[in-house]
Amino acid sequence: MDLRVVSYDHPDAVKLIAEVQQEYVVRYGDEDVTPVDPAEFAPPLGLFVVGYLDKVPVVCGGWRAHDSDDPQFQDGDAEIKRMYVVNSARGRGLAKRMLSELEHTARAAGRRRMVLETGTKQPEAMSLYSANGYERIPNFGAYKDHPLSRCYAKSIAD
Q1: Are the beta carbons of 98 and 137 closer than 8 angstroms?
Q2: b/e map 145-154, b = 16+ CB within 10 Å
């Protein structure tokens, strides 16, 4: 897989983000309403990555920096957003590889903890994060009080 850092509004990122939003509609009845500013995914505030197989975009994910100026976060947090693998490429370990890349790039940018929000109707996501050292934390963000929301964190400090 070829991993490339792209802008959040790069055409391949936009295509995959639209697909993940449609996945949320199928599973939850609506798109993710978490506020997202594309500038949050540009260095040094964050990063967005698209993975390609045979030059076709098949996986994406990004992180955006947070610090304790927002009481829901700690200094050095990096929030994962828009992790997604297209249906035809699932089951090949691409999500794990993307997760590893996001952790690596966040650590290199000085971030110390990865955080994320997912939901109970995404059991494969919850399994991925748990299997890779993520632990449940109190819910945060737009879905803080939503009963289907699940938030996770993992230290990436050296």
Answers
A1: no
A2: eeeebbbbbb
64, two tokens: 């955006």
DSSP class of residue 132 equals T
Q: Which two tokens stand for residue 28?
A: 């939850």
| pTM to 2 decimal places | 0.96
43 is written with which tokens? 């260095």
Copy the structure tokens of residue 136: 């449940």
Side-chain-side CA neighbours of 37 within 13 Å: the count stands at: 6
Residues facing 136 on adjacent strands: 152
State whether CATH 3.90.1200.10 applies to domain 2-155. no
Per-residue pLDDT reduced to its tens digit, 96-124: 999 999 999 999 999 999 999 999 999 99
Structural tokens at position 20: 């993940």
Taking the domains of the chain in order of start, what are their residue ranges? 2-155
Do the Cβ atoms of 138 and 131 come closer than 8 Å?
no
Give the 3-state secondary structure of residue 97.
helix
Taking the C-alpha atoms of residue 57 and residue 38, their distance in angstroms, rounded to an integer, is: 19
- Strands 113-119 and 135-137, bridge-based pairing: unpaired
